[in-house]
Amino acid sequence: MAIREIRTVPDPVLRTKCEEITTIDARVKGLVEDLLETVDMEGRAGLAANQIGVNLRAFSWNIDDEIGYILNPRIVELSEDRFQEGDEGCLSVPTLWYPTKRAWYARVEGMDLDGKTLVVEGTDLMARCLQHEVDHLEGMLYLDRLERAVRRKAMRDLRESL
Hints:
Its cofactor is Fe(2+). By secondary structure, the protein is of the alpha+beta class. The chain has helices at 26-39, 124-137, 148-161, and strands at residues 46-48, 58-63, 66-78, 83-90, 93-103, 105-111, 117-123.
């Protein structure tokens, strides 16, 4: 289909909770194609539908040479005793990276284009991606997860970059 333009802050679509996909039709299939094509670029780890202006619960990923997608994802498991804290960035908040604490392991359940259950799980970068993209679908940015002092600096940096 097409490589789509990435929406950036302060676009309100990024702060809108996405709707469940109830019917898999041509529009949803086209969305998945666009998500897969748009994420398939150097430096892109994940892409939520609202980042390309579509208010539906879907995202794609591009981690360790694996590209995929999931519809209606929900986090069903996170490691509770093991965490990672590294710099995180976002295509919708270009050039700004901040230390963000995430679970080391994440498991997400959703469905594929055939309506079959799809389970995606991983550690490290994949776990970070899964958590980051599900947050997008809830209308959250990684900036919302930052510790208070880091968040203040991030918001100041963000205002200066706009």
